[in-house]
Each structure stands twice: as structure tokens, then as C-alpha cells.
């Protein structure tokens, strides 16, 4: 909780810098793609394109926030500001740092998700009261993504590796994880890559909730995949943090 308090104190001073990326950009994206392009697309799987894309934008926002927040910020704590070393010199352990950081990421994602849902609900885009469940989904998705990315960031020595992460992981996942079009439209050879992405599972759970329908796979499979990803990522993050601090 002390680690969470530290991150919240820093965010209280820097929150204005995240207004555009966390709150305005997803809404602008929804208007331009969901309403603009949606006027030409029409319906997808029996619903209007804007209703279909809302959960995708919500999940992809959580995904991108988790990736973005866990790159330079985590590396900087070890290499530039040495904040992690300062915490480690106290009673705070590496595992405490990981858990406190994950709580902070979930907090950031949940605040953005609540604002997003409130705005789209005001426009009558949400088709089911089950849309509230998306808050649980994006929180689980955030941990499933933030934990392994934090581990990766703690294990590298140069920020040039982040370009590879953005180019070959974040962007392809956003484009081909069912956010903008059904994964079934992808070639059969490429589809397993989409299924391997935590984002696809998050998108499908969010879409099932906002539309009030069943997801393509059982809920426990989607949720279990995200949970397994998160648990493995937390173990890797704790190992990477501890190794970096000892080195």
C-alpha cells in the first residue's frame, strides 16, 4: 500500500499529462471510427458498428495504457531515477513493488474505463446492463499485460527495446485482436496468433458484456487465460525486479 501511495502521489502531480491519451483519445477514436467509418460499414454480427466497436476500444485502451505505463516508467525507476533502489533500501521488498505497481495500473485503467463507459452510456450505445462487468475484465486484462511488460522493462538496459515491443507486439495486437473487425475474417493460418493475445480475450469478454451475448469461447476459458497470463507475469516481474535490485 505504501508503494501504491507513492505512485498515486506522483500521479496527483502529473495527471494533466495523461488527460489526452487516457480520456480524450479513446472517445475521439470512437467517434471517428465508430461513427464515421461505421456509417459505411453498417452492421457487424447483427449490431451497429459503433455498438460492436465500443468494447473493442475499451479493451484496447486498457491494453495500451498497461503497455505504455509499464515501459519507460519501470525502466526509469531502475536506471534513471533509481526510485526502485530507494524503496528497496527500506522495508519494501521487490514483491511489494510489483504488487503496488499493479494496483496503480489497475487504478489508472479503471478510472479511464469508468469515464469511457459513462460517456458512451449517455449516448445510448451500451445495449446491456452487463456492461458493468467490463470493469472487472479490463482490470484483469491490465494485470495480464502490465505484469509481463513490467518484467521485460526491468530486465533490459536500453530503451531502444521498447520500439520492438511497440512495433511487433502492441500495434499488431491492437490491429488483429478483434477490435476493429471479427477475427474470423483473418486467414486461418494467422488466427491462432490473435487467439494467443490477451487483448483478444479481453475484447471478447467486454463485447459479450456490452451486447448481452455469450462470448465465442466459454467465459472461464477467456478469464482463465487472462488469469494465467497475469500470474505468470507477476512471477516473472517479481523475479526481474529482485534480480535487477540485487545486481
TrEMBL record:
Family of the protein in this entry: Belongs to the ABC-2 integral membrane protein family.
Biological process annotations from GO: response to antibiotic
Protein name in UniProt: Transport permease protein
Gene Ontology terms for molecular function: ABC-type transporter activity
Subcellular location, record wording: Cell membrane; Membrane
Major subcellular site: membrane
Positions of transmembrane segments: 20-40, 52-75, 101-124, 130-152, 164-183, 219-239
Organism superkingdom: Bacteria
Taxon lineage: Bacteria, Bacillati, Actinomycetota, Actinomycetes, Streptosporangiales
GO CC terms of this entry: ATP-binding cassette (ABC) transporter complex
Keyword tags: Antibiotic resistance, Cell membrane, Membrane, Transmembrane, Transmembrane helix, Transport
Cross-referenced InterPro entries: ABC2_TM, ABC2_TM_bact-type, ABC_2_transport, Nod_factor_ABC_transporter
Pfam hit, one: ABC2_membrane
Domain ABC transmembrane type-2, first and last residues per copy: 17-244
UniProt membrane topology term: Multi-pass membrane protein
Amino acid at each position: 500500500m505504501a508503494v501504491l501511495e507513492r505512485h498515486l502521489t506522483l500521479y496527483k502531480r502529473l495527471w494533466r499529462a495523461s488527460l489526452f491519451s487516457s480520456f480524450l483519445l479513446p472517445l475521439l477514436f470512437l467517434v471517428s471510427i465508430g461513427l464515421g467509418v461505421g456509417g459505411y460499414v453498417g452492421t457487424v454480427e447483427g449490431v451497429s458498428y459503433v455498438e460492436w466497436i465500443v468494447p473493442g476500444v475499451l479493451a484496447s485502451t486498457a491494453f495500451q495504457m498497461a503497455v505504455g505505463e509499464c515501459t519507460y516508467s519501470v525502466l526509469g525507476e531502475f536506471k534513471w531515477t533509481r526510485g526502485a533502489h530507494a524503496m528497496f533500501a527500506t522495508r519494501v521488498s521487490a514483491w511489494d513493488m510489483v504488487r503496488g505497481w499493479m494496483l496503480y495500473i489497475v487504478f489508472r485503467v479503471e478510472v479511464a474505463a469508468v469515464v469511457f463507459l459513462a460517456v458512451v452510456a449517455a449516448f445510448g450505445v451500451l445495449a446491456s446492463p452487463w456492461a458493468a462487468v467490463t470493469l472487472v475484465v479490463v482490470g484483469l486484462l491490465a494485470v495480464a499485460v502490465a505484469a509481463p511488460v513490467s518484467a521485460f522493462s526491468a530486465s533490459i538496459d536500453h530503451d531502444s527495446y521498447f520500439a520492438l515491443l511497440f512495433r511487433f507486439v502492441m500495434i499488431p495486437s491492437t490491429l488483429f485482436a478483434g477490435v476493429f473487425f471479427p477475427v474470423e475474417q483473418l486467414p486461418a493460418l494467422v488466427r491462432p496468433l490473435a487467439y494467443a493475445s490477451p487483448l483478444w480475450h479481453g475484447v471478447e469478454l467486454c463485447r459479450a458484456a456490452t451486447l448481452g451475448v455469450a462470448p465465442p469461447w466459454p467465459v472461464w476459458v477467456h478469464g482463465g487465460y487472462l488469469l494465467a497470463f497475469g500470474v505468470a507475469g507477476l512471477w516473472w516481474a517479481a523475479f526481474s525486479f529482485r534480480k535487477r535490485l540485487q545486481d
